[in-house]
Design a protein that fits this description.
The complex is a heterodimer of chains A (308) and B (320).
Chain A (H helix, E strand, L loop, with lengths): L2 H15 L11 H21 L2 E4 L2 E7 L3 H8 L1 H33 L5 H13 L2 H12 L5 H9 L17 H25 L2 H9 L4 H30 L2 H6 L11 H10 L4 H30 L3
Antiparallel strand pairs in A: 1-2
Helix pairs in contact in A: 2-13, 3-13, 4-8, 4-10, 5-8, 6-8, 8-10, 10-13, 12-13
Chain B lengths: L16 H4 L1 H33 L3 H4 L14 H13 L3 H8 L11 H32 L5 H13 L6 H10 L6 H25 L3 H9 L4 H12 L1 H17 L2 H6 L7 H9 L6 H22 L3 H5 L7
Helix pairs in contact in B: 2-15, 4-15, 6-9, 6-12, 6-14, 7-9, 9-12, 12-15, 14-15
The chains are: A mainly alpha (308), B mainly alpha (320).
Amino acid sequence: MSYADTAQASVDRVIERVPPRLRVYLPLVPVMSLVGVFILYPIAQAIYSSFFDKSLLDPAGAEFVGLENYQEIVSDPDIHEVIWNTFVWVSVGSIASILIGFVIGWLLYEKIPYVSVASAIVLIPWVLPRVVGASIWKFMFGGSQGIINELLVQLGAIDQYIVMLGSTDLSLYPPIVGMIWRLAPLFALLTLTSLQGVPDKLYEAARMDGATPYEQFRYITLPMLKYPLAIGFLLMLIYNIRNFSMVWVMTTGGPGVSSSTLPVMIYRTAFVDFQVGLASALSMLLFAVLLVFSYYYIKVYNRIRGGF
Amino acid sequence: MATDTTDHPAIRRNESWLYDTRFGAILRRAILAVTGVLLGIFLLFPLYWMVATALKTTAEIQQIPPTVFPVDPSLEGFVSVIESSLQTSGLDSFVEGLLGIDISSAIDINIIGNIYNSLFVAVGAGLIAVLFGSVAAYVLSRREFWGKNGIMSLLLASLMFPGTAIMVPEWELFAALNLFNSRLGLIMLYGAMTAPFVVWLMKGFFDDFPTSIIDAAKVDQCTPYETFRYILVPMARNSLIASFIFAFLLAWNELVFALTLLDQSQFTVPPGLLTFVQGFNTQWNVVAAASILISIPVLIGLAYIQRYFVQGLTGGAVKG
């Protein structure tokens, strides 16, 4: 008997021990145990840690403090600023990515030659390693040699080079621009794919019934695009609120907390200030929002696919 | 109503003055062209700038105002990346002896070492994800059982969560399991992050797979395992490769966990580049050269998975 046969036989013996009713679950065991240990357990751990005063350097010396970490979120003005920044990020970043992405997607749909090559090129900002994209934007916005300063001077918007990444008033915005650059292509491709998915037949039938272009858009294109674009909208929200690298590479969340968003603040609290408890409480905030987004994502998904 | 759907000259996509009058057509094209060019510049200029910067000399980088085209194109940046990698990894004397050249690098960046670590982690994570994910996807696609919807929802939700939301507890977990700074730990973590993704992508494939072929296999007395191994896997080859590339790219690009769960000696590409970008007195031509080197695998991957992109990103909800 070959090695493979022996292995097969011993696998069969294990399977035979499992009651037939439960055998269907066996193929799910590897995935579910990985996800359980590395994703679900940490979430539970974060809930637990958020009730403790715990240092990263001395996890054993944790002290139960009840809701103190959550009280600090409510009372700390720095954290208020971070929450406001995150709100600005997610709203400005998502809306701009969606608008720009939709226009790019529409342009690609309007009979651009070599559309698959064009859409591959459009996708490059999204697939580049995030640190690479963020580094390019840091270089473009930053320092005394930044090309964006030069561009603004040439356009007459400013008289001389200004400090952008190191300024308390401005530092929030350059990373948002970088993020729009990264996310718009994704939404563009989603738009293109959805537009291509609308059958030409529908338009023809509508025209035969005398529908105007506006009516065709309103009653055919829009309803057909509704759910795919809803998925895109949720993805934009999720990617924006989760983003860490664009901010961390460009400004490390500073100066002060002027450009910090929630994920950056979590990182700083845990790995710079070593306050694991407070960082876990901040993570809970992020969870809560992500949970809402995921709920709607699953809902829209089921609408499109008609259930799992 | 006519069922003929072929293009008929009398039926155009749109009827509007923007299409039907000469002025309208010119105006429409002009608007399209201007928006297209502006958006094209927004998307592509940063990429051009990366390439242009990589080809400049260290002196040219520091010019104010910056030069738009490299005046004196040079590969200095790329040479620096390779020299400093060799020096940091201690291979410099070997190569010096081999090629009879002198290596002395003032910077401290080991991109080639980082690329090696990344390859190791990304291939490992990709294999785990594809192996575990596709088996689970098959069952989830073909069978009905208690808890199926719960499992599917859980897997979809777990795609939204990783990264920044669980970096702190993940650090605690790695410390508890003594996995800190181990590539094996990171492989399992990335596997856990990408396997749900593979489940979704492959489930989409299995859902659309014709039942008649599977029935035929049953008639020929194939066990479910044999059907999976000898019928579905060969036919799913392309989707499996695409899944692997997706998982590979995620691991290749991931920053947060690599930064918090590894130390400098095991750094993958993203934290490796980051320490250099945030370091004192960054040489941007070297950063740009390194960026290009580490983007190459990604661009090759993109060419292959483009067809699956939207489907993959939306968990199969929207298909290309």
